[in-house]
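Thread: "does anyone have the structure for this chain?"

Original post by V.I.:
We have the sequence but no experimental structure in hand. Need at least a predicted one for the grant figures.
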Amino acid sequence: MITYTNGDRYEGQFENGKKHGQGKYDWENGDYYDGEWKNDTAEGQGSSMFGAEFYNGEFKNGKRNGEGELNTEEGDFIRGMWDMGVLVKEIERNG
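Reply from O.Q.:
Generated one for you, tokens below.
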């Protein structure tokens, strides 16, 4: 595990000095991303918690991209398709 000077932590695989493969990054404030990395960026399957929002699904270039499920701060559940961080199609919604 690597602990950065700002208190963030990363535990996982590296390639050529960059996060690459499976790994978990924990921000000092409690947010996290746990999943696949490519060249220091969240890419592939993963889960994240930012504030009170939990997302599980696909990522590309560090953003929600493809199919995924989101539990919002308001308590809603959304299963849908994302395109570079933007929800473009709701498949299911509760709440």
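V.I.: this helps a lot. The CA atoms of residues 76 and 95 lie 4 Å apart.
O.Q.: and The longest strand covers residues 41-50.
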